[in-house]
Hints:
The radius of gyration is 44 Å and the shape is rod-shaped. The chain has helices at 3-24, 78-103, 107-137, 145-174, 178-203, 249-252; strands at residues 33-45, 53-58, 65-66, 71-75, 206-208, 213-218, 225-226, 233-248, 260-264, 273-280, 285-286, 300-308, 320-326. The protein has six helices and 13 strands. The chain is 39% helix and 24% strand. With 354 residues, the protein is of the alpha+beta class.
Amino acid sequence: MSKKRVVVIVALLVALAVGVYAWMHRESGAAGTLVLYGDVDIREALPAFNDSGRITSIDVQEGSVVKRGQLLATIDDTRYSAALAQAIGMMDNQKEVLARLRAGSRPEEIAASRATMRALRTTARVNRIIYRRNARLIITHAVSQQALDEARAAYDSARHQYEAARQNYLLAVTGPRTEDIAAAQAAYQASVAAVALARRQMHDTRLYAASDGVVEARILEPGDMASPATPVFTIALPSPIWVRTYVSERDLGRVRIGLAATVTTDSYPGHVYHGWVGYLSPTAEFTPKTVETTELRTALVYQLRVYVCDPRDELRLGMPATVTVDLRSPAAAPGCGAVSGTHSAPGEGGAGRP
């Protein structure tokens, strides 16, 4: 074999070795970095009415920026308004009943009971005198037995009527029973709770934004029937924003929560977004078909989330992105407020959690 041929073979072997090495390390950038590929991801909310009814108005369109507490839509409140008015009326009535029992008998009622009792007492005394006189006269046959019996019956009747009037007078003086007041109090509290429920149902005919966001889609329209199980909108939440990517088992030991990272996209060449590793899946999965990777074989990978600072509001859901993880940075999530050229941290207080 000639010397020239040996040199060519050696050169080819070296080139092949370099190619194999480059292919095996294609996900690594400069020393101390790891290059990954993924898509921008955000959280979405699906707000729905807490009651059922026909939608009467929708106040926002696709692409509208909404703020927390902003009115989004309404449903017909005719039934809920009537139910509220009924509950308020029953509560007012029960309130008066309780107030009457607590106040006790009026002075006029006590006076009337006293006068009735005294009148019946006088009647009972007169009938007693008549009965006793007839009882003496019956001995001499001055009166008939029938007259005596009628006098006795009139006396007994007057005596019982007087006793009933006396008891009514005592009840008027004593006032309502404690148990009756407690029952009226419980009924009033139940009516207050019914009013609170009716007010809440009335409030639920209005759909408000639970947080800041952007309307992605209007699922229902005016005239549709709404229910708690049917979302009205799809709202994208602007914070937190992260890139969902995957790391192979070969590089798993090099990645830690809190490592600094940078993100770039094809949509904004030259724009670099700062972030950090905020989540690393504890379980492996097969490589998703949508993942951008240079691996040519099916392999087990681990999901990784890199939370991103986007002060210019440029990143959109599903946007392909390239992530460069700084493996030499301290494992402590800096937050957007600590990253130069950014503003506030997305998902402050929870962006480092899945």
